[in-house]
Amino acid sequence: MSAWRVPVALLAVALAYPLVFRTNFAINFGVLVLFFAVIGQAWNIAGGFAGQLSFGHAVFFGTGAYCSTILHVKLGINPWLGLWASAAAGALVGAFIAALSFRFGLKGSYFALITLAFAEAFRILTNAVEFTGGGLGLLIPLKRSAANFQFPERIGFYYTILALAALSIAIALWLKRSRFGARLAAIRENEDAARALGIDTFREKVKIMALSGALCAAGGTFYAQYFLYIDPVVVFGADKSVEMLLVSMIGGTGTVYGPLIGAFLLTLVGEGTRALTNAQGLSLIIYGGLLIVIIAFLPNGLIDLFKLRWGRRRA
Amino acid sequence: MDATILGAAVINGLLLGGSYALVAVGLTLIYGVLHIINFAHGSMLMLAMYGVYFLLVKAQVDPYAAIPLMVVVMYAAGYGMYRALIGRFSHGKDENILLITLGLSIVLENIALFFFTGDSRNITVSYSDRMIELGPSLVPLPKLVSFGASLLLCAALAWFIARTDTGRAIRAVAKERHGARLVGIDVEKILAVSYGIGIACLGAAACLLVPMFYVAPTVGHLFVIVAFTIVVLGGMGSFLGALVGALLIGLTESLSGLFLGEALGQIGISLIFILILLFRPTGLFGGGR
To answer: Which of A189, A172, A198 is nearest to A7 (CA)?
Structure first.
């Protein structure tokens, strides 16, 4: 039973939050935290749990954002359906990149570089083709209604992204306890040894990349519906990939709640510095500095601080 | 296809490749010795370019005359960065070095954004618009100079690594770190020196790029993915590879731009990157590891 205490308490807090803090600012803050937690967790299940470091997760995010938006804007398909299509597209792209890279035996920094190359290729392609709106991007026409995935009140977005965040944490919890997750941990720690034990490392890695891609793409659809505008640089750019990696790394990579902690901090620093100054860049100076400090002193991420306090819990 | 247009595109591509080589040689040295991808490379280039820009605007120092100064300053910056941050905080893990250089690049880029704003700045020097006739096309003088300089830089580095004592120590550390330590080489110092030299190349690169390129906080992005591609294509750690790779990539960019159009043309580089990673990750001139 005690294993459920943390997630249930977190969920209760998250459910109550927008009912207590009703301002637009507070709800937007919550949406951003949960949004970064979702894409950070998407990165984390591949990069942290399975040890497949990626520098190009924006490729999945952008695929999701563009998939549902093109379906919606060009073909009139409801974005709620588009969300599922996006997740499927993200899984497909994830499986494709993984199958190709792992079939050719890429790992470590070579895998990181090929994901980066794919994100770049997708960015250039969407930028060049007219079908995707080119460099101008795509604008989703304003038509506020819950049925249209454009909630009149922000709180609707909040509960939608909360559902996605809860799902992402559920996936992470499942990976911690399931045989699949154990096989991934074995691959992360020593891939040759894992193969020697009879694990089909290729298949497991493709599976986790597909799952990660699907989750990330769902985050992309949410982003498109929340901001109603996407362009190639914003959704496929290297900055997006780095954001996901940072959220996970700073919070604690390979842990269940690390991305949530990282997302909270990213949003806090981002919104905090925006309130203080109009100059650009300050929040990322702090965040980049934090990354260095954490690697120097807390190599397992901020979650270590929590573990130190409650060290008696199982490791 | 008109032969003149094609010829002009080839010349333009080779010259572009020369500029890329300037950025890639330092990166390949750092990879060859430290076995890490230096994510801070683009932002260090960007800082160096701002340095050259302000030297010209505030102190009227010609960019080409600033080369010795910039090389020394960037060497010191790289050496110091390695000693103070990268070497100390990486706990000997490659992934940590990668992430620290990533963190550094985020910090440096946003410091530039914070202080210098996102505006791109251009300079004009007397020779900015001087054109030289080269076969079918007119070529701006700064491009020719940077091309020549990139050849010189690669040759100088190759000589330094092959012939000097420090170069020998660098090669020893690159090949066999423990062995190098056993014969009395100060490995940490050599790593810092290598990182410093790699960054010093950027000092020279910045001086050569500024007369023909704009300066902005994100200018490093333009070069860094291309430089990664070149380093992998040429074989990580090979100077000749970096040079040949840079010329090939320059040609690819120019020709695919010609045939596919400006916007889609850039995809040529990404595709080559993907194909090289898949089929020959050791690159054209890299030995197996």
So the answer is: A172
Contact present, A213 and A60 (Cβ < 8 Å): yes
Show the tokens assigned to B103.
């963190």
Among the partner-chain residues B100, B263, B267, the one whose CB lies closest to the CB of A292 is B100
Residue B9 has a pLDDT of 86
Domain-embedded: residue B63: yes
Cα–Cα distance for residue pair A156/A39, rounded to 1 Å? 19
Give B 240-269 residues with CB within 8 A of chain A. Answer: 261, 263-264, 266-267, 269
User: What number of C-beta contacts closer than 8 Å exist between A and B?
Assistant: 127
Tell me which residue has tokens 């010259």: B15
Search chain A and give the residue with CA nearest B90.
A296
User: Domain count of chain B?
Assistant: 1
Answer whether B36 touches A (CB < 8 Å): yes
Instruction: Give the model's pLDDT for residue A313.
Output: 46
Q: How many CB atoms within 10 Å of residue A13?
A: 10
Residue B287 covered by a domain: no
Q: Which residue has the higher pLDDT, B99 or B109?
A: B109
Please tell me if residue B132 touches chain A, with a CB cutoff of 8 Å: no
For A101-139, the pLDDT digits (tens) are 999 988 888 898 899 999 999 999 999 888 888 888 999
pLDDT band at B169; cut points 50, 70, 90: very high
Judge whether B132 lies within some domain.
no
Distance CA A247, CA A257 (A): 11
Residue A260 has pLDDT above 50, yes or no: yes
Give the mean pLDDT of B75-84.
Answer: 94
Rounded to 10 degrees, the C-alpha dihedral B192/B194/B198/B200 comes to 70
Domain of B29 in residue numbering reads as 3-121+140-279
CA dist A174 and A161 (Å) reads 20
Q: Helices A282-297 & A258-276, crossing angle to 10 degrees?
A: 140
**Structure tokens of A93?**
């792209």
Render pLDDT for A169-222 as a digit per residue (tens, 0 to 9): 999 999 999 999 999 999 999 999 999 999 999 999 999 999 999 999 999 999
Q: Which of A53, A120, A280 sits opposite B113 (nearest CB)?
A: A280
**Whether B232 and A101 lie within 8 Å, measured CB to CB:** no
* Structure confidence at residue B111 (pLDDT): 92
Give the CA count within 13 Å in the CB-facing half-sphere of A156: 12
pLDDT over threshold 70, residue A1: no
CA neighbor of B65 nearest in space, from B73, B57, B78, B56: B56
pLDDT of residue A315: 41
Closest residue by Cα to residue B195 from B209, B226, B174? B174
Q: How many CB atoms lie within 10 A of CB B2?
A: 8
- CB of B222 less than 8 A from some CB of A: no
**B39 closest CA partner among B231, B260, B243:** B231
Please indicate if any CB of chain A lies within 8 Å of the CB of B65.
no
Q: What is the CATH number of the domain that holds B173?
A: 1.10.3470
In a domain? residue B286? no
Average predicted confidence (pLDDT) for chain A: 90
Q: ipTM of the assembly?
A: 0.85
